[in-house]
Amino acid sequence: MYKLVITKRNSFVFSVVFDESDGPVEVYAEPIDAPSRLDNIYLGHVTNIVKNIDAAFIEIEGGCTCYCSLKEKTSYLFGPHANDERLCMGDYVLVQVRREDIKTKQPSVTGKLQLAGKYLVLLHDTKGVKISHKVKNKEEINRLKTLFSNCENGNYGLIVRTNALQASDARLKEEEERLAALYKTICETGIHKTKGSLVYQSFPWYIDLLRDVPSQELSEVITDDAALFSKISEYARQFQPEDMSKLRLYTDESLSLSALYSLQKVEKEALSKTVWLKSGASLIIEPTETMTVIDVNTGKAINGKKAGDEMFYKINEEAAAACMKQIRLRNLSGMILIDFINMEKEEYNERLMQLLKKLAEKDRIPVTVVDMTGLKLVELTRKKVKKPLHEALLSIS
Description:
By secondary structure, the chain is of the alpha+beta class.
């Protein structure tokens, strides 16, 4: 079961997802006065086309220039006076921010618009229905495909999320109708906005967390800020009434919410370079410009003990769980290299790779366990969505 704790600290909204059996598993910081653009939709202005990298640069609100890959084929929704079906300099086009600016990279936008609900994701320029790969039951898959068979010849496509397994057919169709009406409004009115205008504003990240955690796995949402509680309650009342009873405004003046959940300690540990394991081994986590490197050190784990592959595997097994937790906790993304303790027998390496793949399935953000290199380095990739925690805090410090 998960508990979501939300509070304001200094100049940001601090959101922590607690696994009741494993402590904090996700930590996010959002500037109060500079909310994220992630998933917002704008009427962008194409300022440049760079053919040798097959990309366009599109300006949105506030003079922010964004990168748009032209390798991703889509039917763009143009504003007035478009010259071609392809993007051209000077065009006005509806785009959605798919990835925040990270380090020196500009925000990334796409013409493939998406609108996410608790149970469904509506897709522009797509037909048919896709079922979350986490849904394995064939009867459920057939039920959901039949329920949304209208998408085969409609104006949009749908992804059915894992959450949909807990919802009635009526609730699912209700959400589809809401998303379809919103999509229609965006398409019809957005193209007539002024240059760079915000057409659709996504929910704050703490609302996304409430939406994305399955209801049956959510025990409580707690905040000590009346304004945040009002926004969360308004969202839940409209879109997730079944979770209204889980919302709580914390008002105990004798002990702050931050102190109750040791949020300063959570933040400090989520930014620490060294993570100690129960065995005495440790992780050294080093974010670099192009990747994150995690080094597994035996430390005190083998002091006075006879070391061999079996012991090394036990340490690596513990380290694997810790690595995957820290990647999720810190919201690390892109390429991640893990230098585990070398094991001679291939069977132990294979067991380690299978364990990592199993652990990766717990993350809500897609993680791919790529391979183990000839130098016995394990390569992972994790989808880039929001800034990692250390960057988010640095940007508002």
